[in-house]
Design a protein that fits this description.
The structure holds 2 protein chains of 2 kinds. By secondary structure, chain A is an all-alpha fold. Chain A has helices at residues 2-8, 23-59, 77-84, 86-117, 125-133, 140-150, 157-164, 180-188, 193-204, 208-216, 221-232, 234-249, 253-258, 272-282, 286-314, and strands at 62-64, 71-73. In chain B, the strands form 2 sheets. In chain B, strands 2, 3, 4, 5, 6 and 7 form a 6-stranded antiparallel sheet that branches. In chain B, strands 1-8 form a two-stranded antiparallel ribbon. Classes of the chains: A mainly alpha, B alpha+beta.
Chain lengths: 322, 358
Amino acid sequence: MSSINQAAALPSEAAQPDTTKKKMSLERQQRLWGWIFLSPWLIGFVIFTLAPIIASLIFTFTNFNLGTEGITWAGLDNWNKLLSDPLTLQSLGVTFKFSLIAIPILLFVPILLASLLNSPSLKGKRILRTLFYLPYVIPAVSAIFIWQSFLNSEAGWLNRGLELLGVQDPPHWFEDAAWILPSFVMIGLWGIGNAMLTTMATMQGVPTELYQAAEVDGAGTLTKWRRITLPMISPVIFYNLVLLTIGILNYFVVPWIITRGTGRPGNAAYFFNMHLYKTAFAYGDMGYGAALAWLIFIIGLVVTIVLFATSRRWVYYASGDS
Amino acid sequence: MAASSRAVNTSPAYGAQLKKFAIYGMVTMFGITVAFIFLLPFGNMALMSVKTTDQITESATGLIWPMEPETFTYEGENYDVYEVPMPDGTTRQLALVEPTRRVSQFIDPSNPEAGLIEWEGNWRALNRVSYLFPHWENFAEAWDLINFPLLFRNTLIIAVVGMIGTLASSTVVAYAFARFPIPGKNIWFIILIGTIILPSQVTLIPTYAFFAKIGWVGTWLPLIVPHFFANAFNVFLLRQFFMTLPRELDEAAMIDGAGPARVLWSVIIPQSWAAIIAVGMFHFIFAWNDYFSPLIYLLGKPDLQVISVGVQAFNFTYGPRPELVQATSLMAMLLPLFLFFIAQKVFMRGVVITGVEK
């Protein structure tokens, strides 16, 4: 949690306004106000985060169906079912496979774009930056339908373009089990706006002396990029990696809409959250749904801990300041 | 140095200038090309939204633009117009009156009095004459079919009320984190940031069950009320901003007798419009684009439904009319795009504050 710690450790304690004899009571008063101002979040945290996490853990040990009133104790049934349900393993596999394709691409494309947009030889930076960011602000549903028609194997521009370039039999993107996940990654490229902006801003903060020193040593553009830029922006790469991982653990809308909830072809696009949604909301099996939710929670926790633990080896923090 | 060696003026300064411009040109062209490819799907959508279903099917055979075939009315009948190569080497646009395999009869639309023209050859090999005709009426049809005014109004209310909620609560909480000596503040702050990386599924089912229990499922309340309890991203952004503000102004106001609430309202907020607008924009666009929450909480309530789910449900029903699906997708994204364009500077700075300063 080191990157978060830093933000939290900023000098933020209120300076003592004055040192009159009323200091103690003033400080108590300040604390009270602090709690009052903090309370919206504290209350919300308890109601919408803490209590639901605990409740969903309890749900995993029950048979709880929204349609039929009443809860019965189920012991470890739901947890056992996790292991025996072939769709759970299947959908976890799809999610994992997707992360293997999506993470490298969606992590590095923003870095490459940010490098391009920070290039001193580029004219019209601001317009281009806006254009690359733009798809991020439109509704996911719109973006998905736009891509669905763009990747249509008959009339879509991509395949028409590939045919013009001489590709004989361009992929049938969403109908082909081998191509549907890469198609989703393409759609994901429209969501890189934030990662690109934060990377750009961090790159601009790299001290120019470092580059000048490297130039004196005869380093070329590529060497400087690899040896200075990449290490210096590693905190933001790490931050984007964490957000990307969380995004994949929450991935739902794109496969849900493109496959109309089926996960077809085969189960190639049957993501874990589609399984969870169907279990809990289509079949109303909230007990087993909660077990699925806790499974992904545990996986997310483990992945995050591993990410933070390994980050010490490759994430470079210049100094204590943010 | 290839560019400089070919230049007429071979002075070193001129060569360096030329090389610099060549690099400028190449990098900029490359950037424009990448952006063009990146945004191509928008072009596909825009053109598709003004075609007919038949034209979209035809576009698989090479038509990019919404072209309508030219016809000519002759003696009360409509005839298609073709590009006909004449024996003298010219090409004339003629209407096909009587097609047969070897010899066909044409009429010249510009000179119908001349009577039928006989042409030898297979008419199927001829190209039809067509003209550009965007079907703007698709938008009117889609507007009515999805009941756009209703979806627009619903989404707007949910987004605006939620925005007010998150602005009020996040500002207050950020103020607490930025200025007050709360015991265990660092731990609270870590917990707050930790909620960002919490997979939302784990709270989903009990929250849904809770809202179902108190009768809120099927209303807008689950989409609005939780935003009155602050949000980690927004609190973080506002706190970072507040901490850059000088304390001297707070203290001056306090000496004048202002209480903490008064300081927030009259000192902090007036200095923080950039951050507050950014947070408001983030929430508005998030709420406008949100799909999952309305999907589960407004299921079976078409009168209360929002634009994302409305567009998606429309596609599931009208999938065979892809032009209308594209038209609705375009209509759904206009407002967030507009807001982004008018406030993009503030918006992007907000992204950078939350992303970089962690």
